[in-house]
Design brief:
Blueprint: H1 4-13, H2 20-35, H3 42-57, H4 63-83, H5 89-102
Helix pairs in contact: 1-5, 2-3, 3-4, 4-5
């Protein structure tokens, strides 16, 4: 499972310190983890993570599109945390809040 603390720290520190390759690797870890969940909303987040991955790997990065998508992912992640029946629900909520703040 991807590291909640590491992801949240990178987001809070500003994603500019996160290399594209490190961001892609992190996104792929979350896609893998979320792809295994049956929680409503998880598949939508996986699709949006795929879009984010494409946006950040583009030759010309569209900062506004990235910002909008990160904000959407933040809201979706907070919603997912409310539906999650796991010990990680609070960490998922914190991750969503960090994404929303970053947007």
């Amino acid at each position: 499972m991807p590291q909640f603390a590491a992801t949240i720290k990178h987001i809070q520190d500003g994603v500019k310190g996160f290399t594209i390759s490190a961001a892609v690797k992190n996104i792929e870890g979350w896609e893998d983890t979320l792809g295994k969940l049956e929680t409503p909303g998880a598949k939508t987040i996986v699709r949006d993570l795929e879009k984010l991955k494409k946006l950040i790997q583009a030759e010309q990065i569209d900062g506004d599109a990235v910002k909008t998508l990160v904000g959407k992912l933040g809201k979706e992640t907070v919603t997912l945390a409310g539906k999650a029946d796991s010990k990680n629900a609070e960490k998922v909520k914190q991750l969503g809040e960090a994404l929303t703040s970053a947007a």
